[in-house]
Design a protein that fits this description.
With 247 residues, the protein is an alpha/beta fold. The chain contains eleven helices and ten strands. It starts with a strand and ends with a helix.
């Protein structure tokens, strides 16, 4: 059995006095990949924010490499090896591409050369400031900056949102490349269920802040009836995106 990298145990969390997640538990192995699915507003992004330490934990444990980090500050979680690509991208608009990449760099496999090999567009734009990039280029930069911290776990919060199909295809290929050797795990929140399931090994579905379904990603992707019941047709990927994913 693979070594466990991250465990959530009966986690209840939210904002202020409000509870968003209630009783969430799962294990993620070293090199594992997990799709987090569900309708809008059920707590998917809150789950990632809770792992990063940006919500109020009301109950439960968050165990990282055997240590409970529930009370650990967010910046220390990042230093411990948890990377995050936020939904808002949060790049530094006044810094160049290269400055954005190097500002939080840590030693490891992912250096400037590796990032530029993964995203050649970033090398072409390395002298451009963050606010002079297209939305797709900004998302590539957000990925690259997170990778430069050389994390053992990467949290991806709807990384394909609002992107053109051709950019989705590039980023999808990048995700497959950067996780191919099994040295980095990732958790993917993505509204397009088939895309998320095609990239991951395991999946959970959240409803009203609780996990209501667990499955292997391939099995859930093939189970159209369950997907429609739990997520609905509104979350199905558009045809042009499906075409881009299939190449």
């Amino acid at each position: 059995m693979a070594e466990t990298l991250l465990s959530l145990r009966d986690v209840r969390a939210g904002y202020g006095e409000a509870t968003v997640l209630d009783g969430v538990s799962f294990d993620l192995p070293v090199g594992g990949s997990l799709a987090v699915l569900g309708r809008n507003g059920v707590g998917k992004s809150t789950l990632l924010l809770t792992i990063m330490g940006h919500t109020r934990l009301q109950r439960g444990a968050i165990v990282w490499e055997g240590q409970d980090i529930a009370r650990m500050a967010a910046h220390k979680r990042a230093l411990a090896g948890i990377g995050w690509v936020a939904q808002e991208r949060e790049i530094f608009p006044s810094l160049t591409v290269e400055e954005n990449l190097t500002v939080a760099a840590r030693p490891g496999r992912w250096d400037l050369r590796a990032i530029y090999d993964l995203f050649p567009r970033l090398q072409e734009r390395r002298g451009n400031k963050g606010n002079h990039l297209s939305g797709g280029e900004q998302q590539m930069l957000a990925f690259g900056r997170a990778l430069m911290t050389n994390p053992r776990l990467l949290l991806l919060d709807e990384p394909m949102e609002g992107l053109a199909p051709i950019i989705v295809e590039e980023i999808t290929a990048a995700v497959e490349r950067m996780t191919a050797d099994g040295s980095m795990a990732f958790i993917l929140v993505e509204q397009h269920s088939h895309l998320a399931l095609s990239l991951t090994r395991d999946a959970i579905v959240i409803e009203r802040g609780a996990i209501v379904h667990r499955a292997k990603s391939a099995e859930l992707e093939a189970d159209t009836a369950t997907l429609e019941r739990l997520i609905g047709l509104a979350e199905e990927e558009p045809e042009e995106l499906a075409k881009a994913r299939r190449g």
